[in-house]
Amino acid sequence: MVLAELGGSISRALQQMSSATVIDEKVLNECLNEITRALLQSDVQFKLVRDMQTNIKKIVNLDDLAAGHNKRKIIQQAIFNELCKMLDPGKPSFVPKKGKTSVVMFVGLQGSGKTTTCTKYAYYHQKKGWKPALVCADTFRAGAFDQLKQNATKAKIPFYGSYMESDPVKIAVEGVERFKKENCDLIIVDTSGRHKQEAALFEEMRQVSEATKPDLVIFVMDSSIGQAAFDQALAFKQSVSVGAVIVTKMDGHAKGGGALSAVAATKSPVIFFGTGEHMDEFEVFDVKPFVSRLLG
Ligand code: GDP
User: Fold this and answer.
1) pTM
2) Complex-level ipTM
3) Residue nearest to atom 26 of ligand 1 (CA)
4) What does the CA dihedral 243, 269, 126, 128 come to, rounded to 10 degrees?
5) Which of 36, 46, 227, 255 could bridge 42 with an S-S bond, Cβ 3.0-4.6 Å?
6) Pocket of ligand 1 from Cβ distances under 6 Å
7) What is the pLDDT of residues 59-71, one digit of tens each?
8) Cβ pair 173, 213 in contact under 8 A
9) Which of 140, 174, 142, 139 shows the shortest CA–CA distance to 160?
10) Residue 95 burial by CB count (10 A; 0-12/13-18/19+): exposed, middle or buried?
């Protein structure tokens, strides 16, 4: 896993610094530059890395380092705290309550793993005793309804969609209404994607959101998109009120740094991450373990 490699580079940089006889500004800068390179390689956005570097310089007191304290530990702690801060938007996302109807709308580009993630999210809650339901409002991609239907059937989760209807807003509204009547407590609306950020997609997202009034909009992001993460997340945030992020494909060569960009762009927390194609390859995202792993 590449995260471990990143940890390796950071550990090496810290080791090099702590073995220096005198820790002066030059040694600290060299160490921070090394860490910066590691984070950039892991797809953390340049601006975020630069901000982190500035903050660490403000926090780390060179006199403390010179006084023989555990230098490595001081810097490591500062980096840890900064990365945690970058993943914490300062407010929690809306959390649906079991037994009370919530509508959750998923948005993201085509191929991000949106449809798969909708089922994973439904399945995760179903296992905990919820009554989830899936609505396929993706009328753009041929085969989207079949995919959702197949996933939902496998997990025994009720679903709604249409082969004939081409209006995603109509399907979304009908599906949400039906499952509200059936007392489902977690109504998940899967939406269309596009291969790239397009005005038509964002307009469609705006309309579906306006019509279904979701309690939570989740932005799904492929962790391998690299430096594109910030702009992509921001584009969705500007059209609908994204309240949480799910990062997919963390099992691949993903470097994970895009998660930091998505949080910065949407001002929303990452709540889950996907680690495979299967329904149960889905984990709750926790900031501290994620950062620990990042630091090796
Ligand atoms: P959508 O176009 O955004 O709805 O994307 P899909 O849900 O169809 O997913 C696109 C591809 O990514 C499919 O082959 C999924 O099986 C795969 N996929 C989704 N999430 C993950 C994940 O966490 N890990 C891996 N390895 N593959 C995933």
Assistant:
1) 0.92
2) 0.99
3) 276
4) -130
5) 255
6) 108, 110-116, 193, 248-249, 251-252, 274-277
7) 887 776 666 667 7
8) no
9) 174
10) exposed
